[in-house]
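ARCHIVE CARD
Drawer: 12
Card no.: 0347
Subject: one protein chain, sequence and derived structure
Cross-reference: see card 0346
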Amino acid sequence: MKRKMFQGAAALALAVALATPAGASRFARVGLDYLVAENETIVIGEVIETFSYWNAEGTLILTDAKVVISDVLKGDPKLQEVTVTLLGGTVGERTHTAVGAAALETDRSYLLFLHRADLPGAPNVQMIREHGQGVFEIQDGAGGPRVVSQASSEALVPDAAGVAEAFGGAKGMTLASIRQAVRELAVRGPHKEVKQ
C-alpha cells in the first residue's frame, strides 16, 4: 500500500514537473496569441460527464471529462463531442491533485484550449497543456456571457512584457469578444497580443 502511494505521488510530481519549467513554483503567464497558436483544437462546450480512474500503470489518477461542443473556434468544424483528460481526481478514498491544474465540472460551460499529447500511462489524449490558463469558465454577465480564466486568481510568472495577470484578468471579458479574437488569431496567426 505504501509503495503504491509513493508511486502515485511520484507519477503526479513527474507529470507536473514535465509541464512546469525547471525550478519553477509558478506557471509562466501566456497570452491569447500563444494559446491559439499552440493548441490544435479550441472549443466552447458543456461538460456532461466526468470519470476518474487510475492510469495504465496504476500510479496516477486521471479524470476524463466528456464535453458536448456548441462551437468550434479552431480545429475540425464537424467536432460535436470531445473527451478531455485531466491530471488528478478521486478514485475510492484516494485523491490526486496538481497545483494549478485545470478542473472541469459537470453541467458547466467552458472555452477550452486543447492539445493532443501523452500523459503518464495515458497516450494520445486531448489535454489542457496550459493547465488553468487553458480553461475559461463561461459565466452570466449583465452584458451577456463572460469568460474568466481559471488561472485568474493564480500568481503567474510575468511574461516578456511584464504582464503577470492571466489573460482577461479577474473580471474576464465577453464571450463574444474572445470568440472573435480567437477566430481572427486562428486565421492570421500570432502576430501580436490581443488587447484585453
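Annotation on reverse: The chain has one domain: 2-188. The first strand starts at residue 41 and ends at 54.
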